[in-house]
Amino acid sequence: MRTQVGIVGAGPAGLVLAHLLHLEGIESVVVEARSRQYVEERVRAGVLEQGTVDLLIETGVGERLKRESLLHHGIELSFDGRRHRIDLTGLTGGRSITVYAQHEIIKDLIQARLESGGRILFDAAGAAVHGLDGPSPEIRFRQDGEPRTLDCDFIAGCDGSHGICRPSIPDGVLTVYERIYPFAWLGILADAPPSSEELIYTHHERGFALFSMRSPKVTRLYLQCAPDEDIGNWPDARIWEELHARLSTRDGWTPTQGPIFQKGITGMHSMVAEPMQFGSLFLAGDAAHIVPPTGAKGLNLAVADVRVLARALAEYYASGRRGLLDRYSETCLRRVWKVQRFSWWMTSLLHRFDGDNGFDRRRQLAELDYVTSSRAAAAALAENYAGLPMD
Ligand code: APR
Ligand code: PHB
User: Is 370 a catalytic residue?
Assistant: First the structure.
């Protein structure tokens, strides 16, 4: 089998890349370890920056998103029992965020690719990349037990944080910068109409909590918990009790309860691998960098990367020039580091750190007070949250 760009991974990075390349007339094949059903049902993030939404709509995969998503013009920060609104739209000159589940985007992208004759090979086992520093890179894998080889001009490593592409780069090439946070998030989905129209990020002495949503009928809620928390220790009643303790405000607001139909634990980790390229392999999305979920940036960063990569590949195939390809890593990393900084800052601002003393907690509260009372500080949060320019 042969193609121009071999893509490992059918997450947001791989599928958006395949779609953008198709619009540029460039052929690709996506090689995905999991089944179609698995990737279409995997529960992940759900907050889209304005730039991500614009890109999906402008490139023709935003029809269902336009109909079914929820447009938000602000978020709330809650501390000391009071909520404070950050007017994202007012503070950014008209930008907003959109709530639409990642797996719904995945469904829309898969459908669009398959309808236009695109190739996505699901259930591809044991993928491995070869010949990265030579003229003919290839992806080897097995399908239905049969060994297969995909010859390519370039390989896009879009296989997420536990994929095989980043570890295939020879030792000594990459520098990996990391921070592991001493806590995790316990997340639930509940059949309950959201009792707030906007997301609420809560700082509480018992730990961080987040009120979010997926639709007018489904609430998404998170609690800061221990990094090695056993979900078995969290029966539904305990989860609700803890959510009420952290989220309820002095004015009597509290999240509406409903049957919990999904729960899980998410680790908190910051990581950047530099450079995002080796030979003909280009890393994009979680394969190259991970952010803690506090700023809701993972999906948006993945889309920003592949936008840069698609343009660079389009220039190469149109003119033979490698300028944009050679600058791919540098171009992405400038934005990646700013988004890392923001995600780290939101995480530090809102969570309870066990070693913190009274001074640290008062400093955190002073910062929350500042961010919610100074227009300049709120504007800095808003421009980052709604999304920095794509390039
Ligand atoms: N072979 C083939 N596919 C693989 C392999 C492999 N060895 N390893 C992983 N994959 C697939 C995964 O099954 C997944 O479908 O790669 C895909 C990676 O997708 P994501 O993890 O969603 O990563 P990315 O596309 O970079 O999107 C980043 O997704 O879940 C979020 O928090 C994350 O929001 C961020 C965004
Ligand atoms: C979510 O709805 O899953 C969500 C929202 C905001 C975040 C993280 C996750 O910061």
Answer: no
Burial class (CB in 10 A: 0-12, 13-18, 19+), 245: middle
* Omega prior to 389 cis, within 30 of 0: no
Q: Which long-range contacts (CB under 8 A, 24 or more apart) does 20-23 make?
A: 20/59, 20/306, 20/307, 20/310, 21/310, 21/313, 21/314, 22/113, 22/116, 22/118, 23/59
Span 15-50, pLDDT tens digits: 999 999 999 999 999 999 999 999 999 988 899 999
For residue 290, the ligand closest to its alpha carbon is: 1
209 CA from centroid of ligand 1 (Å): 26
- Please report the atom of ligand 2 found closest to the CA of residue 212: 2
Whether the pTM exceeds 0.90: the reply is yes
Task: Tell me, in angstroms, the distance from the centre of ligand 2 to residue 386's CA.
Answer: 13
With H, G, I as helix, E, B as strand and everything else as coil, classify residue 251: coil
Domain count, the chain: 2
Same domain flag for 24 and 166: yes
For residue 251, pLDDT beyond 90 = yes
- Asked whether residue 277 is assigned to any structural domain, the reply reads yes
Q: Which two tokens stand for residue 291?
A: 């952010």
CATH code for the domain of 239 = 3.30.9.10
Neighbouring-strand partners of residue 283: 157
Whether 385 is catalytic is yes
Q: Kindly state the greatest CA–CA separation across the chain.
A: 66
Say if residue 263 is in the same domain as residue 332. Answer: no
CA 187 to centroid of ligand 2, rounded, Å? 9
- Answer whether residue 123 is part of any domain: yes
45 Cα nearest atom in ligand 1:
34
pLDDT tens, residue by residue, 197-229: 999 999 999 999 999 999 999 999 999 999 999
Q: Which of 19, 72, 103, 203 is catalytic?
A: 72
If asked whether residues 58 and 125 sit together in one domain, one would say yes
